[in-house]
Amino acid sequence: MELIHKKTNIDFIGMRKYTFAFSGSLIILSILSFIFVGLNLGIDFAGGILIQLRFPAPVKIQDIRSMAAPLGYGELVIQEFGSSEEVIVRVVERRIEGDMVQSELVAKLTQALQPLAANGKIEVRRVEYVGPQVGKELTWKGLMAVFYSLFAILAYVGWRFEFRFALGAVIALFHDVVITVGFFSFTHREFTLVVVAAVLTIIGYSINDTIVVFDRIRETMKRLKKQPLPIIINAAVNETLSRTIITSLTVVLVLLSLLLVGGEVIRDFSLALFIGVVIGTYSSIFVASPIVILLEKRGAPSSPPLVEKKHV
Predict the structure, then answer these.
(1) Which of 117, 177, 180, 216 is deepest in the core (most CB within 10 A)?
(2) C-beta of residue 96 within 8 angstroms of C-beta of residue 68
(3) Cα–Cα separations (whole angstroms), residue 155 to 3, 67, 163, 166
(4) What is the rounded CA–CA span in Å between residue 268 and residue 184?
(5) Integer Cα distance of 36 and 188 in angstroms
(6) Do the Cβ atoms of 190 and 261 come closer than 8 Å?
């Protein structure tokens, strides 16, 4: 199936100054956001106790905050969860340990908020607790999972293609991860293990897209041996453009459906994937291949003429 019936001849490499400037701006904004805003770490990383409550009628966050403050559990993170009747209260109190103390906290909280229930009952829908030490371990393991993924991809693409292609692919993936996580920092959305899982999924999706383009570049290099690399890359990207658009559009439509009707539980996961797929599609066309050109011009580790390697 072809979405674009007419053969395109778009000069993607010629646009690299503009696309590099665009990508560089997004990365700088993301880094500035990390420095000045930081990540709104969820209970998975920050530790504490999370309580999901459902009220019989809409409630105001400020009312919940003022009525819970006298309990003396420090600063509470309170936010709506899908509707104004349902809220999540996160208590980052280091002294909370053990089932008994947690049950006591939940009982005190629901009792304090009872006047907001308008003669109804407050339903406790979820209680989760993560200790500070576990949070630190999860943070470290999450970072390591992303690092090992990028390293494995660097090794695989370097073995399957050439080092300059591997470097281009990993830089493009790093670009996707930084911008996606930067969005969560900039919007101050909660960064949880679910989002880390989405980031790892983005890495897998984006490298698949990039490998398809690289494969076509390798085939085109054998066909157009005497042509300069920019012309070869442009030809390869144009030939795979229809496939790239159809694949990404299909995935984006599914993710949009999940965002709109999938519910609050998977909203952050769907949102991270949506941003990652859009950015990953853009980077596989406008970032990964142009970086190969850049490395070629700057005399990156020299490579033998690109011929298909035989693997068992």
Answers:
(1) 180
(2) no
(3) 34, 55, 9, 7
(4) 9
(5) 12
(6) no
How far apart CA 221 and CA 284 sit, in angstroms, is 18
Considering the entire predicted model, what is its pTM?
0.78
Q: Cα separations (Å) of 135 from 74, 94, 130?
A: 19, 12, 7
> Residue 112 and residue 53: Cα distance in Å, rounded?
13
Residue range 50-71, pLDDT digits in tens: 888 888 888 888 888 888 888 8
Could you give the angle at the alpha carbon of 244 between the alpha carbons of 240 and 246, nearest 5°? 120
Taken in order 53, 56, 61, 64, the sign of the CA dihedral is negative
